[in-house]
Design a protein that fits this description.
This protein is mainly alpha-helical and about 130 residues long. It has helices at about 1-15, 50-55, 110-120. About 0% of the residues are buried. The mean pLDDT is about 75.
């Protein structure tokens, strides 16, 4: 125990030298452009005029710009009939559930040999 204490004191006396080495002096760039600009992958390549105009066209679980008020004036639930939201059927090539996929994309059922191999950790394969 005293040897460990002596080693710790000796190592604490030495200056710690990190193993990673950086090249050059750390300095911020000369000029940084903080002006807002459109994302390079944006479809329109320009910024909206205002946040309000952005919200008119934005979609997040339904239209954001549309005001929905119920006939009683309380809350937004029930403000419009469900049929006014559009069709419920998926578009061509889209599926809502895995069971609707073509047979080639469905999971194949497990065989009894595969079940036995999993339950025994693979030992049944060599018997």
């Amino acid at each position: 125990m005293n040897a460990t204490k002596a080693l710790r004191q000796a190592s604490a006396a030495q200056h710690r030298k990190p193993m990673i080495r950086f090249l050059g002096k750390r300095s911020p760039p000369e000029s940084v452009d903080h002006a807002p600009h459109a994302h390079p992958a944006s479809p329109t390549h320009n910024l909206p005029d205002s946040f309000a105009s952005y919200r008119q066209n934005a979609q997040q679980h339904g239209p954001l710009g549309r005001k929905t008020v119920s006939p009683s004036g309380i809350g937004a639930i029930g403000g419009h009939a469900g049929s006014s939201l559009g069709p419920v059927e998926p578009a061509k090539g889209q599926y809502f559930d895995r069971s609707e996929l073509p047979a080639r994309f469905r999971a194949t059922p497990w065989s009894q040999d595969e079940i036995d191999a999993i339950e025994t950790g693979g030992a049944s394969m060599f018997v």
